[in-house]
Amino acid sequence: MPRLPWRRLVNPYRPVEILSADQIEMIHGASLRILAEVGMEVLGDRAIDILARAGANIERSSRRVRLEPGMVEATIASAPGEFRVHARNPARHVDIGGRSLVFTSVGGPAFVTDLDRGRRPGNVADFVDYVRLIGALDIVHMEAGGPLEPTDLPVPTRHLEMYRILATNLDKTWQCLGFGRVPVDDALEVVALARGVDRDVLVREPSLMTIINSNSPLRLDGPMSEGLIEMAIHGQPIVATPFTLAGAMSPATIAGALAQQNAEALFMVVLTQLARVGAPVVYGGFTSNVDMRTGSPAFGTPEYVKAAFATGQLARRYGLPFRSSNVTGSNVVDAQAAYESEMAVWGAVMGGVNLLYQGAGWLEGGLTASYEKLILDAEILQMMSEVLQPLVIDESEIGLEAIADVGPGGHFFGTAHTLERFEHAFYRPILSDWRNFETWQDDGSRTAAVRANGIWKQLLAECEPPAMDPPIAEAIDAFVRRRTTEIQASDRA
Fold first, then answer.
1. Tens digits of per-residue pLDDT, 262-277?
2. Omega of the bond prior to 217 within 30 degrees of 0, cis?
3. Cα 241 from chain centre
4. Are 108 and 363 in contact (CB under 8 A)?
5. What is the tens place of the pLDDT at every residue in 18-47?
6. Where in the chain is the domain with CATH 3.20.20.480?
7. Spatial CB neighbours of 172, under 8 Å, sequence gap ≥ 6
8. Which phi and psi angles does 369 have, rounded to 5°?
9. What are the angstrom distances between the C-alpha of 26 and each of 32, 33, 256, 262?
10. In whole angstroms, what is the distance from residue 351 CA to residue 366 CA?
11. Class of the CATH domain delimited by 9-18+76-387
């Protein structure tokens, strides 16, 4: 299977800017009015206390928090524009911000599917296999917080086993769960053990990331606020992402959805900086639309792409890294899944995205992690990474001598110009089948999903998890056992 080697990506292109500077300022002003006049409902006590100490206007009976514009602008200014996330393998560190581009895997689905076994609840066996595939695909730079939910594990201690699998099967960066103080603290301990460093080093060298979603419209729940604060206190980056679907959780216009998205994102950025000045944070955009006939989320739509362009502009307005996603509403690995994902990836990359979430494997509007879609998306990402490589233009590349020698009606297959570049002349697709005409019926007629099915199986059979020193693995196992016992005892008490 022709897989590209690991490499850090830099986007050389100027981002598409769909809005004028005046329009960006209009959205900025509307967002500040939302925060000052409407405010956010905050369900976490620790978050309210932090905001109150900073001078926010708090209505404790309704848990409504309002922020003055000057406070918002002054507070978000301390968030860094670029930072590095450290892996246990230093060659796998990733840079977030600037012109850097990082692709993550799918993260968070409750279900998993493949052509052989169909759609089923997530389970730990599939979790392990999927993580190993993520590790084997070098185009995927970062794991995204659990590619599927292992529902056969007990809920209170599930995160511990997930972290153990991630830490021991990947030498890339991986993400923790952000719904509370406990899963964040446990992740900090596991990643510190995996890297062989202490908590103080983690503050200087961030090694985890997590998504913090607001509950649009205009609510930040307790577990999310606790996770945000705990990550920020320990210097670990969060991706502040409102879930604004135009017509459902936000106004039906893209302009209104963007203003609300911006208000909610800025509120979360403010909270990170109040928890720890200079804590790294990513501006997350997830604005799309719903099908107004059914209420179902729609992804990879023209509206989604326009929102991605505009969100990139807003993130740059605040000097923050920008997150977008590779998404589709399709239930199966078909043409719809491909063209919606392609639209979403192009919109994100040409909008100047720094962190592409759900980069490989997302299906069914995020409900399902698909083995075949993982391979299809890896193809899309590899093609995109090739588009980002410099185009060399000089006389040797033009090949004037070859053109003169061949002349009219000839071909270039046997020229020195071609033979010198034979091995690396063009991108070789993962899903391509170079078959003879005689075998078309058996091989060439297979769909992309069927070919992807064979590829992930081959990849899984061949891949080996990166080596980990036995004492480190034993220390992680011991920590997971101890914490599991403590949590179980606490639940029985």
1. 999 999 999 999 999 9
2. yes
3. 11
4. no
5. 999 999 999 999 999 999 999 999 999 999
6. 9-18+76-387
7. 87, 89, 92, 134, 135, 140, 141, 142, 143
8. -100, 125
9. 10, 11, 11, 11
10. 22
11. alpha beta
